[in-house]
Amino acid sequence: MTDKTTSQPTTEIERKFLVVSNTWRDAVTKSTRIEQGYLSADRERAVRVRVKGERAFLTIKGGAKAGGIERLEFEYEVPVEDAATMIAELCQPGTIKKVRHLVEVEGHTFEVDVFEGDNAGLIIAELELTSVDQPFPRPGWLGEEVSHDARYLNARLAKQPYNTW
To answer: Which tens digits make up the pLDDT trace of 14-54?
Structure first.
């Protein structure tokens, strides 16, 4: 989802892929450090607090539809200090730390997340689409699609980190 303050829900349509090489690094246009925690997370909803660079957001996501790639989403900008306190004091155990790299490919922006901490070694590319059947490029560094595998949801990675699989 694009960073904006909204009171209207949006529908997030997102595909996720494992990354199989480092050749994407040549096309990075921007990189941002992210730390996030979950106030609540289950199959039907997730409430996330995220510090993304110099900004922070509270995001509420509904359960996955359309085979795991479509979800209702609300996002609100909050003060960075409030978000940091929520992550430290209110979130469930386990946080996500990663660097998000924006990678432009044929008019599409892939978000390549390089995870740190207990999820180190995991690199996932995400692509937001306008419809579930929208065509998109498949660069050579894009590996297996994991959109339908709940283990790769950030909320799940916070509870069951990649290094414990």
So the answer is: 999 999 999 999 999 999 999 999 999 998 899 999 999 99
Alpha-carbon separation of residue 119 from 15, 19, 113, 114 (angstroms): 20, 14, 11, 9
Res 1: pLDDT: 47
Please check the confidence at residue 3 and state whether its pLDDT lies above 70: no
Q: Please state, in angstroms and rounded to a whole number, the distance separating the CA atoms of residues 38 and 58.
A: 10
Residues annotated as catalytic (active site), given as ranges: 38
- Residue 80, sorted as left (phi over 0), alpha (psi -120 to 50) or beta, turns out to be alpha
What percent of the chain lies above the pLDDT cut of 90? 87
Nearest to 36 by CA among 68, 61, 10: 61
Q: Which residue has the tokens 């246009």?
A: 29
**Token code pair at residue 154:** 């950030």
d(CA 120, CA 113): 11
Kindly state the tokens that stand for 35. 């730390």
Residue with tokens 């498949």: 138
C-alpha 75: how far from chain center: 13
Q: Which domains does the chain have, with CATH numbers?
A: 10-164 (2.40.320.10)
